[in-house]
Amino acid sequence: MPKPPIQQAKENILRILRNAAPEVEEIVYPCLPQDMADYRSALDLVEVQQEFNRRKVKATLELYKETSPPQIVVATLDDIASGKLDEYMR
């Protein structure tokens, strides 16, 4: 039997937070319109808030539309040092 949507959202949020590198200060969770309310409810749970506060990480929900262009850029340290990332972002 599948878990309730808020429980699924909570588990996903915490999994991503717990796997984040120590230097991460903010995590943006892209949500489909039909999932946004469940993710908001999951983020409001005391257990979830305590985990974010303990790690000193900010959580943001962002509405994801399937027609949105990707907003994630993966770059190596060499790309950053050489200026390739700056060129790409212009």
Report on this model:
The chain has a two-stranded parallel ribbon with strand order 1-2. The chain has helices at 5-19, 36-44, 46-55, 77-82, 84-89, and strands spanning 26-31, 58-63. It is an alpha+beta fold and 90 residues long. The radius of gyration is 16 Å and the shape is globular. The chain has one domain (5-89). It is 51% helix and 13% strand. Helix 1 (5-19) crosses helix 2.
Layout of helices and strands, plus pairs?
Blueprint lengths: L4 H15 L6 E6 L4 H9 L1 H10 L2 E6 L13 H6 L1 H6 L1
Parallel strand pairs: 1-2
Helix pairs in contact: 1-2
Outline, from the CA principal axes? globular
Q: Tell me roughly what share of residues is in helical segments.
A: 40-55%
Compute the average pLDDT: 90
Using the CA coordinates, give the radius of gyration: 16 Å
- Fraction of residues in β-strands: 5-15%
Summarize the structure.
By secondary structure, this protein is of the alpha+beta class. The chain has helices spanning 5-19, 36-44, 46-55, 77-82, 84-89; strands at residues 26-31, 58-63. It has one domain.
Describe this protein with a few key phrases.
90 residues; alpha+beta; two-stranded parallel sheet; 5 helices
